[in-house]
Every structure is written in C-alpha cells, then in structure tokens.
Amino acid sequence: DAKTTQPNSMESNEEEPVHLPCNHSTISGTDYIHWYRQLPSQGPEYVIHGLTSNVNNRMASLAIAEDRKSSTLILHRATLRDAAVYYCIQEATDSNYQLIWGAGTKLIIKP
Amino acid sequence: GAGVSQSPSNKVTEKGKDVELRCDPISGHTALYWYRQSLGQGLEFLIYFQGNSAPDKSGLPSDRFSAERTGGSVSTLTIQRTQQEDSAVYLCASSLESLNEQFFGPGTRLTVL
C-alpha cells in the first residue's frame, strides 16, 4: 500500500505558483521523498527528491516539514505544460530500491 | 542521448495467448524496473534487476508472469496465458543504481480481448 496521501486533484491558474501537498506520517529517518510526474500518455518523469532540507532544481522546489511527516512540491510559475499527475513517493523502509506509488494528484492548469 | 525504449507500443492479444514485452534501458544503467499501471491508477511494482544480482520478483502477480534481463541490458517481460485483467500499460524504467532517478520508457499498452 502507498505510504503517502495526496489530494486527488487540484486546479491552478496559468503563470501562478502551485503548492502540491503530501503527507507521509510513517516516514523513517532515512527515507527519502521522491516526486515524479506523468504527463498524459507518457511514462513518469523525475521531478525532485529530498531527505530533510528544502531542495531546489530547475523544475521545482521541495519543502519538507521539520518533522518530515509532510512535504510540499512547489511549481513557481505553472504553465499549461505542467498539467500532469504528480506522485509523491516515500521509499520503502524494508527495501532499499522500491518506490511505492500512490494514485497521485491530478494537476489541472487553467489558462 | 537515447532514453529508455519499449516495444511494442501497443499490443492487442486474445485471452490465453502468450505475450512478450521488451525494454531497452539507457546504456550503463545497472538497475531496471518493470511496473504495471491500470487506468487512472498509480504504478504497481512488478520486478527489479540490479546488476548481476538475482532479481526481486516479489511484485509479480502470478506465476504466469516472468522476466529476464540478458547481458545486463535488454529485458523481456513475458506473460503466459494472458487474462483480461492483465490489460494495462506496462512501464519499464532504468537508473544508474538503485534509488537514483528512474528514467521511464513510454510504456506498452496491453489489451487482452
């Protein structure tokens, strides 16, 4: 079973920031949080991952709560091409390679 | 450079037939994963290969499913005696090592009639 919980869907306006929340209350001290997204009819693509500190890359920022039980993926300026399903994934503590995928959040961008 | 490729992109088969799905990972990637994705769902882990180690088959849903990886590169997922519930998109991913960023192929859409 997925170890993270996310809203089923969210809407945002084009060119505005988007904050996608994720809860991972069972996370252990060494589990990373990974974010992937899947555009329609494509395979998933990596977005970002982090452990404790906030992380930034060219695609997004990841803000991790101090207790690490939740995180937020931030798209600073959403475009229509950001419309996708966003998956927040906690590593499996009993396996050092499995990512347990949930249903994700469908992000809808309104022009 | 070339990404992960999968073939065929679409496969329609009749119930009871065997099918083979192919994955060509990114050159040099030691880890290879197979997932299954039903409509509107997240990814379901099937099997994992890491280098020359024995694969982890713990996600395979039944003994009708098998996979191999030849020469540490190309992988084939075989489904024997297909059933309608096997209909899904089968995704392959590779990474430099386990837990690194996974690069996904476009998937094979399998439809079992």
Structure report:
The complex is a heterodimer of chains A (111) and B (113). Chain A is mainly beta. Chain A has strands at 9-13, 18-23, 33-38, 45-50, 55-56, 61-64, 70-75, 84-91, 99-100, 105-110. In chain A, strands 1, 3, 4, 8, 9 and 10 form a 6-stranded mixed beta sheet that branches. In chain A, strands 2-7-6-5 form a 4-stranded antiparallel beta sheet, with no helix packed on it. In chain A, strand 5 (55-56) and strand 6 (61-64) form a beta hairpin. With 113 residues, chain B is mainly beta. Chain B is built from no helices and 10 strands. Helices cover 0% and strands 47% of the residues of chain B. In chain B, the strands form 2 sheets. In chain B, strands 2, 4, 5, 8, 9 and 10 form a 6-stranded mixed beta sheet that branches. The mean pLDDT of chain B is 92. The chains are: A mainly beta (111), B mainly beta (113). At the A-B interface, strand 4 and strand 9 of A face strand 5 and strand 9 of B.
C-alpha termini separation of chain A: 35 Å
Beta-strand share of residues of chain B: over 45%
Indicate the mean pLDDT of chain A: 90
Multimeric state: heterodimer
Strand content of chain A: over 45%
Biggest pleated sheet of chain B: 6 strands, mixed
Main sheet overview of chain A: 6 strands, mixed
pLDDT < 50 stretches of chain B? none
How large, in whole angstroms, is the Cα Rg of chain B?
A: 13 Å
Average residue-wise pLDDT of chain B: 92
What is the share of helical residues of chain A? under 10%
SS element count, helices of chain A: 0
What is the N-to-C order of secondary-structure elements of chain B (H for helix, E for strand)? EEEEEEEEEE
- Greatest interface and its participating residue counts: A-B, 21 and 23 residues
Total beta strands of chain B: 10
Distance between the termini of chain B: 37 Å
Count of discrete alpha- or pi-helical segments spanning 4 or more residues of chain B: 0
Order of helices and strands of chain A: EEEEEEEEEE
Using only C-alpha atoms, the radius of gyration of chain A works out to 13 Å
